[in-house]
Amino acid sequence: CGLFGAFNVADAASFVALGLHALQHRGQEAAGIVTYDPEIGFSSVRRLGYVRDNFTQRETIEALPGRSGIGHVRYSTSGAKGQTAIRDVQPLYADLAMGGCAVAHNGNLTNARAIKKELIERGSIFQSSSDTEVIIHLMARSFQKNIPERMKEALRRVEGAFSIIALTRSKMIGVRDPLGVRPLSLARLGEGWALASETCAFDICGAEFVREIEPGEMVIISEKGVESFRPFEPARPRFCIFEHVYFSRPDSVIGGRSVYESRRAIGVELAREAPVEADLVCPIPDSGTPAAIGYSQESGIPYAMGIIRNQYMGRTFIEPSEQIRNMGVRLKLNVNRALIRGKRVVLVDDSVVRGTTSRKIREMIVDAGAAEVHFRIASPPTAWPCFYGVDTPERDKLLAARMTEEEMRAYLGVDSLRFISLDGLYRAVGEEKGRDPSAPRYCDACFSGEYPVPPSDALAEGALT
Ligand code: 5GP
Ligand code: SF4
Ligand code: MG
Q1: Ligand 2 centroid to 376 CA: how many Å?
Q2: Residues 98, 39 share a domain
Q3: Span from the CA of 352 to the centroid of ligand 1 (angstroms)
Q4: For residues 114 and 460, is the Cβ–Cβ distance under 8 A?
Q5: Which ligand is nearest to the CA of 286?
Q6: What ipTM was assigned to the predicted interfaces of this complex?
Q7: How much is the mean pLDDT over the chain?
Q8: Of 2, 4, 20, 191, which sits with the fewest C-beta atoms within 10 Å of its C-beta?
């Protein structure tokens, strides 16, 4: 999911809409904005679909008055998957004893189901299927005197990954979980402030990056400025390494590192670890592009656009007909046949999850007359599900959980298949010595199976057995 907040600026909603538009890649299912105006109170618009289709009309922005506002783009990883109900669209809002509070959450809580069960037994009535609502109920039941204190108390009970932006009548609050699994940054926006999942959202609205919210930090932004608190036990940070590989936008800067540069460096590492004689290096757009550039630069094999992406493939387009939907990746990607014919091609993609995309692409490339097809993947084999906010399928649907690399190569039908090593990936994101197995700097559970926070709900349901 993606988060954006604006505090103490005229027409906060228009900045939030811009910010969410820049974060659309983090969630396409739904978007919502909540604003606050002292005369009108809280206003909220929550819709299914893209930001550009829902938050560009003047009437919508005018329905969201105020100098402070927060917003969310949704990508479901908990709750009802794939078919977001309007009740699950964030920010969630609640009237608490001391005033209203809106909450937007990126990440996934690993013990939400256990807490929810307990809260329901004690009389809480849940409105949504989202794990985020647990935080609201814990806040509502707290005896602390103000909203930030209630939020601290609630967040000490939940486990897992959370970056949160919350809005009250007088404050905007930003928090990251103790490991800092998901990103969150602070910027100056005119006389006011902005918070966003990624720095690319600051660029679009002219906000000036100040710093990242630190793992385990809570910032409270008010008329007094920005105050910083440490509500949790200190822990070693474990930022999501997959944000660098795939999830974040390449024009964002995370942990002081350009995401584009990390991805290009992954391609350089891949070319060193897994060289091959070939005529062309082609990305599988758009996610494989920076790594393909790095592979080409390091190997000296020319870079070319062997696969062309249709920029206008919207989600809504495929809905009308089953027959069209079955055409799958062909709607989005097409082979540049004249270029590919007779060539030995290196195809670079960010990840292999179920293997469906790779299989279809290999078929298209072979149809187009490629002489050889070599897959190079910018992440290690995805063999474990993510429980911290990236939507991976259950373990038995992950190709790498069921097959060896040679079996995957044969299944995909390619001449060679190589993944970057975990050490190579760490080097690409700035760890010169690779991954320190006794104290890894990142979360890499989907590749290593080492979960920095036990996924307790999932374990209770036997998801990993
Ligand atoms: P597969 O077809 O192997 O299941 O999926 C691999 C493709 O899905 C890759 O091209 C990658 O760009 C994309 N992908 C990887 N992770 C995610 C994700 O979390 N969400 C979405 N929508 N796509 C992803
Ligand atoms: Fe990121 Fe993978 Fe960890 Fe999930 S399991 S937070 S995708 S590194
Ligand atoms: Mg892709």
Answers
A1: 20
A2: yes
A3: 7
A4: yes
A5: 3
A6: 0.93
A7: 94
A8: 191
Q: What's the pLDDT at 329?
A: 77
72's CB contacts (< 8 A; 6+ apart) are 1, 2, 3, 20, 27, 31, 32, 89, 90, 91, 104, 105, 106
Confidence (pTM): 0.95
Say if 243 falls within a structural domain: no
User: Is 296 marked as a binding-site residue?
Assistant: no
Ligand nearest to the CA of 442: 2
Is residue 101 among the annotated active site residues? Answer: no
pLDDT cut 90: percent of the chain above it? 89
Say if residue 108 is in the same domain as residue 25. yes
Catalytic residue, candidates 1, 101, 200, 282: 1
Annotated binding residue at 101? no
Ligand 2 atom 4: residue of nearest CA: 386
Evaluate whether 162 touches 78 at the Cβ level (below 8 Å): no
- Could you tell me the CATH number of the domain that includes residue 68? 3.60.20.10
| pLDDT score for 321 | 57
Q: Which parts of the chain register pLDDT below 70?
A: 77-83, 313-327
Dihedrals φ, ψ of 77, to 5°? -125, -15
Whether residue 299 sits in one domain with residue 377? yes
Tally of domains in the chain: 2
Q: Which atom of ligand 1 is nearest to the CA of 349?
A: 10
DSSP single-letter state for residue 23? T
Give tens-digit pLDDT for 301-337. Answer: 999 999 999 887 655 444 445 565 556 777 788 999 9
| Same domain, residue pair 303 and 429 | yes
Mutate to test the pocket of ligand 2, among 108, 241, 247, 384 (most ligand atoms within 8 A of CB): 241
Q: Which of 185, 209, 237 is a domain's end point?
A: 237
Domain boundaries, position 214: 2-237
The dihedral sign for the CA sequence 221, 151, 36, 55: positive
Judge if 222 and 184 occupy the same domain: yes
